[in-house]
Design a protein that fits this description.
Elements lengths: L10 H10 L5 E5 L4 H12 L4 E6 L12 H12 L12 E5 L2 E8 L14 E4 L2 E4 L2 H11 L19 H11 L5 H7 L3 E4 L2 E4 L1 H7 L12 E5 L10 E5 L3 H15 L2 E6 L2 E6 L3 H14 L9 E5 L3 E7 L20 H9 L10 H10 L6 E4 L3 E7 L6 E4 L12 H13 L2 E2 H7 L5 H13 L3 E4 L6 E4 L1
Parallel strand pairs: 1-2, 9-13
Antiparallel strand pairs: 2-4, 3-4, 5-6, 7-8, 9-10, 11-12, 11-17, 13-14, 14-16, 15-16, 18-20, 19-20
Amino acid sequence: MSPITITSPTADDVSAALKAGQGERVALLSERTSPRKVAETLVAMANASGGMLILDAKIGNNAIGLSEPKHTRELVSAAALMPDPPLLLHQPELVDLDGATVCAVRIPSGLRHVYSLKGQYLIRSGRRNRPLLPNELRRLLLNRNEVGFESQVLEKASLDDLDPTHTAAFHQQLNSVVDLPELLLSHGCLAETTSGLKPTVAGILLFGVEPQRWIRSAEITCVRYPGETMSDDFVRADIRGVLSDQIRSAEAFVSSNMRQGMRIRGLAREDTPEYPISVVREVIVNAVAHRDYSIRGDNIRLLMFSDRLEVYSPGRLPGHVTVDNIVEERYSRNEAIVQVLSESGFIERLGYGIDRIIAVCAQEELPRPQFVETAAGFKVTIYGHGHNLVGAAPPAGLFSHLQLNPRQEKALAFVQENRRITNRDYQQLCENASPETLRRDFADLVDKGVLLKIGERRATYYVLK
């Protein structure tokens, strides 16, 4: 794990924090605040994503200046020693802001311990400090402990719960000279217990006969919506099985549900998929490899819209990794899973692949991907070529769930090839149908969000929505 660097806040840092105002990563306290309250805030921020604590004469976005700067600095230093274990921070700084002196201290993200104050575990949530819920404390202890959730032994599982096909394939792929149990033991997929060798969480996820029997939320929900927002019309697949199969199936879902077309580069046209498949693969692999499998009731969600692809994985960024340093910093929540997936050819252990995702999107002239940490997870958004593709057609089978009649299927095939359809076109396709029947067909396709009506009367035509 990379060392944590604690730096002193500068005047610019403090000014920016004051301008941003109170929040999860900025806390403003009065110089009259008790040491206990200061310690509570330090603990809460240390157990969350870190940030900056600023003390002034009065709480506000404009610095007034401390009446006793040295006393306030000593107060913060003393408060940092009150938690268990003590917070070893950089010396609080007295920062001058246009003649007004404030005291500021930086709390880094990714500290190695879980901190308490008088037996109470706190976390920063928005503008306030609150007690950690039991399940939150458990996850935090796991994330900051040397032994994570993936290393836990499943006591009721046995070697029979590992699929011999998967384990033998891995053994053969590595061409290992050691026997299979020893190989799995060295990779953290088995653990020695008083009852003999038992599968770990990592072992079941990677090689289990039925992984979801033991970790129910270890699955990927893939959904393709026709438009830019969620709707009642969609194609869905719930992907289960071992992690390697999940990765392949999720990638196949995106490949079969994304549009294919052409784009103009210079004077040439070139075939272009809606999303670069290498980016799709990297995003899926990262979600599977680095999600928090200890979180119950939530799974990886892959959502395809007409303009973007979103992949959400449960669990906030691990260790000292933040959205700001995610390209440079490395921290594996699931070291055993990452190692096996790496040796199976899915990922490079040296990094998350975030830099490659950004580089490929830039090369493909796509907008920069968005990385967002939510209250309980992490989301990556990739923007595709979408509407910029020439002759782009929706993926085959996109509207199969809508139970269209044969006439409507003909109409959609015509639109995919010609980009639009008129009443006259439809009449020629379905010569035996009455104008009223065809009008109802069009109205139904518009109501279902498949077609968009353009123009009025004789100038009316329809395009894919």
